[in-house]
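FAQ
Q: What does a multi-component entry look like?
A: The components come first, one per line:
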Amino acid sequence: MAKAHFLEGIDPSTPLAAGRWGAATATAGVTMRRLGGLSIASIVSAKGAAPAVIAAIEAAHGLAIVDRPEVCAGTGLCCVGTGPGKWLAVAPRDDGEAFADGLAAAVGAAASVNDQSDGFVIFELAGARIRAALAKCLSIDLDPPAFVPGSAAATLLALVGVTLWQIDEAPVYHLCVGRSLTEAATRALAAAGAEYGFELTLD
Amino acid sequence: MLITCPYCGARDAHEFTYLGDAELIDRPDPAGPEAEAAFHAHVYLRDNPAGPHRELWYHGSGCRQWLTVTRDTRTHAIASVVAAARPEVAR
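Then the predicted structure of the entire assembly, as tokens:
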């Protein structure tokens, strides 16, 4: 009997189930874990008000954020630069609306803050071959020093708009995807990572 | 073709949407002299240069800002990329 192709079972017509996919390697070369219990909010500065937003976030949360494509992580709050005067704020709490309200109160009229917890899903991407897999679906340079821990990018992953940022040297990345596009992004990464062994965790 | 976005860095042209001549930024004064002729030119008349061209690109799959790109239409060599927002109203 012919050996099963490593893409077998990665069927575009059904949601990808949690577990091992692709090559039966001893350890998965690429792992993708859905992160739960997060609140996500968008912060968009009013014209000319980005410095005021940065000062307000520092005063309220003690976190010095920057107006560049970088991630600034503090205790209980992480801000990812997505555009000039724009950030994605992420916190490990499950009351998204109250989280956005708290941020809105802190920045006042300097920015528009909206709860995006229902709209986005964040995944943790890791594994020894994660860069090789991402190279097949991302068109940005992820090798250091072009992309290092703390770097962030709003870009396309297999034609899906995503925000990606690097957590550590390993490398471990966090990937923020629109909720209705998570299946497309998951399957693209599963196909890209299949030859290295792919593991999906959906806790 | 790579466009070096001032916020995101070098990105593939597929992340951007092309609008056209950057002259569109400079809207004529409706109260000025020859306003009708100036608006006709603003709305309808475009140069089609073989050489450097100032044009508007939207980085829709990245930082979502409008950019003014100076591109040579013969070689696609890009001489400059700046945010299209006027400095006095930009961040």
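Q: Is there any commentary attached?
A: Sometimes. For this entry: The mean pLDDT of chain B is 91.
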